[in-house]
Amino acid sequence: MSCTVADAVDYKGFPADKSRTGGWVAAALILGIEICERLSTMGIGVNLVTYLVGTMHLPSSTSANIVTDFVGTSFLLCLLGGFLADSFLGRYNTIAIFASIQTLGMVALAIAVKLPQLRPPLCHATAASNNCKQANGFQMGIFYLALYTIGLGIGGLKSSVSGFGTDQFDEKDDKEKAQMAYFFNRFFLFISTGTLVAVTILVYVQDEVDRSLAYGICSISMFIAILLFLAGTRRYRYKKSSGSPIVQILQVIVAAIRKRKMTTPVDANSLYENSPEASRIDHTDQFRFLDKAAILAQGDFEERNAAGSSSPNPWKLRSVTRVEEVKMMVRLVPIWATTIMFWTAYAQMITFSVEQASTMQRSIGKFQIPAGSLTVFFVLAIMITLAFYDRLIMPLWKKWNGQPGFTNLQRMAIGLVLSTIGMAVAALSERKRLSVARAVGGTTKTLPISVFLLIPQFFLVGSGEAFIYTGQLDFFITKSPKGMKTMSTGLFLSTLSLGFFVSSFLVSIVKAVTGSKDGQGWLTDNINYGRLDCFYGLLTVLSVINFVVYLVCARWYKTHEQDPPASQMTSTTAKANGSSAEDRC
């Protein structure tokens, strides 16, 4: 048994043999499908606004909202994908099914942008932009169908890729646990690599060669990645799910509501507990209303078999440990809510900032930089920041403070600060661009101002993502119950989703409040006549307020943070006892 993984099986359902399953070979096949997913997602997202404005002839604010709604919905669907993976399909089947759905969506989008019947006629060079014919309902309907098919695939795929990757390593084996830490680093590296290829090569193909060809490349790469993923079926380790965390949370809430009129015992030992002693979580006094779910009452048990043995009805009675797991998730909510604002600022980097770039000089010699490719500085900022943090900040911080690096809460705080500064810089850059537009006339297609003026805002927000993404991932995985890791990962990804939805909401509100009868306002159809700098200023003010609230929530969380369960505290001893047997494998 020492040469098998206790909580994993192979594709035949037998205990997983360490020498034949899992490890880096299996993880690499899973990472391959992630890099293709990111290639497709960012290849669409960063340059879609230029297609909607330039080809479909939609207003800039409408185009920005379409992009943010698409990205937001994709990440929100991660919750659905996680629920299906935990409750019905399993992670392997979820990845295979939703990767196929995403591939079909990419094929449909490539066809939609290729056929002339599915886009409006071109504008004449002498025609005013407001006389261009917008895409009709049928054309937009086909476009939305393809786009949200891709979004459905992204949501289901992304919810399970990281979890299935970590399933390939045994946490009880010190060697494999160390490899798992490298997996997270390489997982983020693959995401960044996919993004880098998308915003450089893929965006160039879209703008200078053929957009449908670029989407076709994404379709083919996804198809190849699926084949490679399926080829590793015999190599993977599969872990059985303990059920949907959403259902478990609902059971505690329903049980507590049913017993809302009952008095909670003063002595916590009177509450129901049936979890194994090694995995129990000590009772806490916080959120005492939920403790009612663990009060013993008549009718809580139901007969299971003819022998008369019984077990509690999970919708009427839950153990203290299950209640405390829900409390741990509730404690995450304030931090979750106050990190959404970062992704609202992030959304501007792939919408309005790209549109800004499209109006500026982008030439280096005879080479014309595609507007969407400017986000390469965003990706470079992430990579540079991660390298700088890993090689310089962490060693210095360890010497000075004795810690191996910033805590997850500190990293998230740094990310929020950098994004706030980024929005302030973006406002100043836009004010400069608008002054040039007014001087030469707003109808000028290319303004006499370098696109490199926008680099600082991309670098600041990109560096912020390097801190907040790793901080959020670490926080939501390590501070959640062991049985709710998928749920907490979905919670983290939902901050990205809601950040984009908040961006769409703010754009709609600002356009309604600042607009006038002639269509002018902060966010106009032609950004040269608007006040995008004021919109960025609004985001800066909201980010400052959000950061103050975050500091309060972080302090509250540290005050009420619970010690790890006994099972986690004793895991080192358990590993030490079995280390010699594991070494023989």
UniProtKB/TrEMBL annotation:
Matches recorded under PROSITE patterns: PTR2_1
Subcellular location: Membrane
Chief place where the protein resides: membrane
Biased composition (Polar residues): 565-585
Sections of the chain in a coiled coil: none
GO annotations of cellular component type: membrane
InterPro entries per the UniProt record, alphabetical: MFS_trans_sf (IPR036259), POT_fam (IPR000109), PTR2_symporter_CS (IPR018456)
A Pfam family: PTR2
Family: Belongs to the major facilitator superfamily. Proton-dependent oligopeptide transporter (POT/PTR) (TC 2.A.17) family.
Name used for this protein in its record: Protein NRT1/ PTR FAMILY 6.2
Taxonomic path: Eukaryota, Viridiplantae, Streptophyta, Embryophyta, Tracheophyta
